[in-house]
Amino acid sequence: MADDRDTDRTTIVETDGGGSGGVVAVVLLIIVVLVLLFLFRDQLGFGGKDTNINIPDKVNVDVNTH
């Protein structure tokens, strides 16, 4: 009879790693955006090379009294 013999059975469960690949992709995307912003900051208007502030030597104030 076939029911008298022991039969070994193996079950294989495959997993995709728990979604850590998506987190890595988001972090890499943020890093790429920050690097691009740093490289093109002059064209975007973030922090140009000219940091001179012009302050006048004298301010004329006219006070009219009646």
Descriptive terms for the model:
66 residues, 2 helices, 0% strand, single chain
Can you describe this structure in just a few lines?
This protein has 66 residues and is mostly helical. The protein is built from two helices and no strands.
- Roughly what percent helix? 25-40%
**Backbone structural class:** mainly alpha
Rounded average pLDDT: 81
Query: What's the number of extended β-strand segments?
Result: 0
Order of helices and strands: HH
Coarse shape: rod-shaped
Characterization of this structure:
- With 66 residues, the chain is mainly α.
- Helix content is 36%, strand content 0%.
- The chain is built from 2 helices and no strands.
- The protein has helices spanning 20-39, 41-44.
- The longest helix has 20 residues, at 20-39.
- Keywords: Membrane, Transmembrane, Transmembrane helix.
- The chain crosses the membrane at residues 20-40.
How are the SSEs placed, and which strands pair?
Elements (H helix, E strand, L loop, with lengths): L19 H20 L1 H4 L22
